[in-house]
Amino acid sequence: MTTTPTTDDQKLSPELRRVVVTLIVGGIAAILDSTMMTLALHTLVIQLHSTVDVIQWVTTGYLLAMAVAIPITGWAESRVGGKRLWMTALTLFVVGSVLCALAWNDTSLIAFRVLQGFAAGLIFPLLQTLAVRASGGKASPRLIATVSLPLAIGPILGPIIGGVILNSLSWQWLFLVNVPIIAVGLVLAALYLPADRPAPGAARATLDLVGLALLAPALVGILLGLSNLSQDGGIGHADVLVPMLAGVVLLAAFILWAVRRPGGRPAIVDLRLLRFRSLGAASAVLFTAGAAIYAGAFLLPLYFQQLHGESVLDAGLLLIPQGVGSLVARFFVGRLVARFGSRPVTIASFLLSAVATVPFAFAGADTSLWLLGVVLLVRGFGIGTLLVPPISVAYRDVPAAGIPDATMNTRIAQQIGTSFGIAIVAVALQSLLVHGAATAFQGAFWWAVGISVFALIPALLLPGSKSKATAISAGVSAPTVAPNNS
Q1: 3-state class of 399 per DSSP?
Q2: Which end of the chain has fewer CB within 10 Å, C or N?
Q3: How many Cβ atoms from other residues are within 10 Å of residue 461's Cβ?
Q4: Is the pTM of this model over 0.85?
C-alpha cells in the first residue's frame, strides 16, 4: 500500500487537529530549550567557573546525542508504539531538564544535556511521523506547516523568555521552564494520541545492531568534524580530519550494509526507500535547506554582536522579525503549494532567502537596523516556506510501513546539511578576519547566498505539482518493508 499523493490544501479534521496540537505542545519545549541556550553560554561560563571551549559542549553534546537517537526512532516506535515512545521521550526530556537545573559544574551539565539531546532526537522525528500517521499517510502542506509551528515560534519566544529569565532569575530556570510545558504535553498525549501499541503476541522488531554500530558513530564523527572545522588549522586539523574521515568511512560501510543486508530485511534506517523519487529528491533538498537556513542563523547573531556591539539578548531580539516572517509564512505555504506545486514553491523559497541575504553581504557597522529588520522579515518568509514543500512530498510514493524510515532519512539529511552549512560559513568567517570584521562578515554572507543558489539544483528534482507517480504506476519495484521496521 502506498500513501495517497496530495497537493491539496486540505483542512485538518477535528481529530487530527487535536493530535497536531498535542504534538506541538510537546515539541515546543525542545525548540525553546535550544534557542534559549544560545543566550546562556556566556552566563554559564561565569556561573560554573568554566571556559568557552568547555561550555560549547553544552550545545555540541546535545546535537551529537540527537544524531545518535534519530536512527533508533523507527525501531523503538515499532517495539512500543508511537504514543508510548512519544511520552517516554517527553519524560526523558523533562528529567534531563530537571537534572540540568541541578547541575553543580560544567561536566555534570554537559552530561545532563546529552540526556536532553537524546530525548530531543526522539521527539523531532516522532513529531513528523505521528502527524503523518494520524492523517492516514497524507502529508498535506497544511499539515506539515502546522506541525512545524514550533520551528517558527521558537526563534520568536526563545530570545524573549531566555532574556527575561537571565535578567531576572537564575540560569537554572532556563531548564525548569520546560517542566510545566512537558507536563501539559504529557496530559494531552495521554488523552489525544491514538493508541498504537503492538498487539500482544505480535512479532517484535529486532534491533539492527550492526547498522546502529555503523551509523551512530558515523553521524557523530561527521557532525563533530564539521563543528570543529572553524578551528585554527581548518580541515587539516586533527580535531577535524580524524572524526570526519572516521565518520565518512563508517557511513560508507553503513550504506553497503543497508543495501545488501542479508535476508532482504531493512537496516536500522532503510536507505532503499531513497529509490523513490519523492523521498530521494526531498532528502537532497532538505540537506541543502538545512545548510541554507542555518548558515544564516549562525552568522546573524554574531554580526549584530560583533559589528553593531549588541548584547546577546539584544541580538536575539533583533532577529525576531525573521521569526515573525517565518511564522506568517506557515499560514500561506499550504495554499501556495496547492496552487503552484512543491517544486516551484521550493525554488522560489530558495531564491527569496538568497535575495534577502544579499543585503547583509554589503552591510557594515553603520547599516540601519530598521532596514535590516525589514530584510529579515522577508528572509524569514523565505525560510518559513522552505521546509514544508519537500517534506509534504517526501512520503508521496513511500509505502505506509516505511513512514518512520522516510522520516529518519529526511531528518538525518537535514541534520548533516545544517552542520555542513554552519561549517562552511564559519570557515569563511575565520579565514577572512585578517581583513577586518566587516569584510569577513560580508564574505561569509556571500557564501550563505551561494549555498541558497546551489540548493536550486536538487530542488529541480522534486516531483511536479501534478505528479501522480507511485511505486506501482512508475513501474518501480517497491523494496520489502517489514511492518514492524525490523
Answers
A1: strand
A2: N
A3: 13
A4: no
